[in-house]
Write a structure and sequence with these properties.
alpha/beta, 7-stranded mixed sheet, 6 helices
């Protein structure tokens, strides 16, 4: 199954490259895919968006990792989101201002972006930038993430995002295509 998905993805990317569509952003804009992934689902989607758009890829990593055990991470996320906590990040993007379009990926935790993503968004001035969220979830879809991203980035244009069921991240070709096409690709 994984081999078939990889082959399908590679075939799609090679076809796009031959047609001249891959590796160029709309109007030669500089594109970034920034994401936080706890289980790997958001990472898988982020990598596919970056490959389809020719974007740079940046992983948002908290200094202190989240617990692997499901109940523990759920409880910690609930406490952090309730307290509007911003965990310290391991690395930072040195020049976020050079990007015009930023895809923002996160698991949907308690109906919003994960706290490391909130830290990343609050740390940068995205005035005049276009932010395009994508959320992996297991039933909550986008939650209130778009509203929260607008609050964290008041000068940015936040486009409608795309929810992707985490357990189906490897088969999310339709959702990824929808997200990329909505950005003008």
């Amino acid at each position: 199954m994984k081999t078939k998905t990889i082959l399908l993805t590679l075939t799609t990317l090679f076809a796009a490259a031959e047609s001249g569509d891959a590796q160029t952003a709309p109007n030669d804009k500089k594109v970034l895919v920034a994401y936080f992934s706890h289980s790997g689902n958001t990472r898988a989607v982020a990598e596919r968006i970056a490959a389809a758009t020719g974007a740079d890829l940046f992983e948002i990593v908290p200094q202190k990792p989240y617990p692997a055990e499901y109940r523990a991470v759920v409880d910690q996320a609930r406490r952090e989101i309730g307290a509007d906590y911003r965990p310290a990040l391991k690395t930072d993007l040195p020049d976020a201002g050079r990007y015009d379009v930023i895809y923002i990926g996160s698991p949907c935790w308690w109906s919003t972006v994960a706290p490391p993503v909130a830290t990343f968004l609050a740390a940068h001035d995205f005035t005049g930038k276009t932010l395009i969220p994508f959320m992996t979830h297991e039933g909550s879809r986008m939650g209130r993430s778009e509203t929260d991203i607008r609050r964290l980035c008041p000068g940015a244009t936040v486009r409608s995002g795309v929810p992707i069921r985490g357990s189906g991240a490897a088969q999310a070709d339709r959702e990824i295509r929808q997200l990329v096409e909505a950005a003008g690709r």
